[in-house]
Amino acid sequence: MRNRVREERVQRGISQAEIAAALGVSRQTVISIESGRYSPSLPLAFRIARLFDVSVEQMFDPEEEVGE
Amino acid sequence: MNTGKSSRFVAPLAVLIGGTIVSVAIGVGHGWSNGLIGEVATIVISFGYWLATGSKSDLGAVYRNKVDERQQIVYWRASALSVRVMLLAAFVIAVVTVALKANYWQADLIGSLGGLTFILGLANYGANDEQSEHDDVDPVQRDRSSGAVD
């Protein structure tokens, strides 16, 4: 599942470690989400969207698989 | 989903205690020099665990029992794989020991416990969740009210 986490994070100048701390997950998990290797649970997806002040639909695109 | 208050000493300590128990058993059954070798190996392995729990890797998080949701899934998958291999090993050992007319109750016990706990796990973790007996929306009524069916 493609997402805009990396774009939003870089745009705001926030590090992966800071995002991880804000979300209560490990930095490895942030890396996995950004690369599309891991699709977060619904609660975490909502937390990510809320953190960047966007909707879940804006942040995650279930139609678009990574690597397509 | 960090679950933990567990410090980095819990896993190494568990290994140390478990290994010491095994080493004492070896000492009683096979001589104290062998038991001492077992205890030295236990200390080395325990130190390895302590080093691993100190890292910021997924492995360290799993050993510290401070995992997030992705690491939890990784842990569950690894545990499931481990259990499958153990059950397969128990099956093979049971077959071999039966063929050799040796005692096979140990392998039988491990296999039975594995199978039983799997069934208990299914029941406990919701495999029997019943679906609603009736759908709360009648599709015919819905189509009529929306004008799809005359």
Describe the structure.
The complex is a heterodimer of chains A (68) and B (150). Chain A is mainly alpha-helical and 68 residues long. Chain A has helices at 5-12, 16-23, 27-35, 42-51, 56-59, and strands spanning 2-3, 60-61. Chain A has a two-stranded antiparallel ribbon. In chain A, helix 2 packs across helix 3. Chain A is globular. Chain A starts with a strand and ends in a 7-residue tail after the last strand. In chain A, 21% of the residues are buried. The radius of gyration of chain B is 25 Å and the shape is flat. Chain B has 150 residues and is mostly helical. The model of chain B has no long low-confidence stretch (mean pLDDT 85).
Order of helices and strands of chain A: EHHHHHE
Which class do the helix and strand fractions of chain B yield?
mainly alpha
Structural shape of chain A:
globular
What order do the strands of the largest sheet of chain A run in, or round the barrel if closed? 1-2
Low-confidence stretches of chain B: none
Helix content of chain B: over 70%
Query: How many H/I helices of chain B?
Result: 6
Largest β-sheet summary of chain A:
2 strands, antiparallel
Mean pLDDT of chain A: 91
Q: Most extensive interface: pair and counts? A: A-B, 11 and 10 residues
Shape of chain B: flat
Q: What is the element string of chain B, with H for helices and E for strands?
A: HHHHHH
Sketch the major β-sheet of chain B. none
What Rg of chain B do the Cα atoms give? 25 Å
Q: Total number of β-strand segments of chain A? A: 2
Strand content of chain B: under 5%
| Mean pLDDT reading of chain B | 85
Question: What's the arrangement of secondary structure elements?
Answer:
The complex is a heterodimer of chains A (68) and B (150).
Chain A lengths: L1 E2 L1 H8 L3 H8 L3 H9 L6 H10 L4 H4 E2 L7
Antiparallel strand pairs in A: 1-2
Helix pairs in contact in A: 2-3
Chain B lengths: L9 H21 L1 H23 L3 H7 L4 H31 L5 H20 L14 H8 L4
Helix pairs in contact in B: 1-2, 2-3, 4-5
